[in-house]
Amino acid sequence: MDPEIVLIGAGNLATHLGKALHDSGLHVAQVYSRTEKSARPLAEAIEADPVTSLKQVMDCADLYLYAVKDDALPEVIRGISARAGVHAHTAGGVPMAVFEGARDQYGVFYPLQTFSKEKPVNFRAIPIFLEANTPSGLALLHEVAYRIADRAFDLDSQQRETLHVASVFACNFANHLWSIASDLLAEEQLPFDVLMPLIGESVSKLHTLPPAKAQTGPAARGDQNVIARHLEHLAAHPQWRELYRMITDLIREKMS
Length: 256
Fold this sequence. Notes:
The protein has ten helices and eight strands. The protein has helices at residues 12-23, 36-45, 73-79, 135-148, 157-187, 196-205, 211-214, 218-221, 224-233, 238-255; strands spanning 4-8, 27-32, 49-51, 63-66, 86-89, 105-111, 128-132, 152-154.
């Protein structure tokens, strides 16, 4: 018999996770969010009941998946009375021990991807990292993970924290650099999409080359004249200038 699931949250990750669970044939009984405006659209999309109070969360589900902001997780855990079932959060940077003493069976169900509600994702291609405090809890997380994804890995909290830090560098920081590039182009009325072939090729190379081998550009070449001109060009943006200098120094050190 398939497990009955409660989804705690209705944000970016919860939206994609809920739809993936539903599309796989699994039953999500409830979707919790603080507001009806958030809970109802997702609940209706996956044929679940929307609830807006933690006291309304059912106490007899098999799996509770917590997809809420990291800072809100302890409060949400305290607000839910259910102790039965397996309780797993979806955060990369929060230890499994956040449940300790509050639940009997608990763990982590962490899909490694960046999520936006308006951008579809192929959940089957997303690796899911799992941890649990009991063998039976881990088995349930594996069962659910393989219903929606092709790859699942056991990872303890320390390993997952390293993975999360790495993913911030690879995704969040990289995206911020693209945002800076977009702002620079906008100063000359140039569209950001002129960079898309370059970005696409940079990412594509990583399928066949390690990042250090794929590195190009003036820092990798040691082209001091170009670097000096770039730093001068960024004089009006001292924070970006310092960031350019710092990353250039790191690349040169790595390449030496």
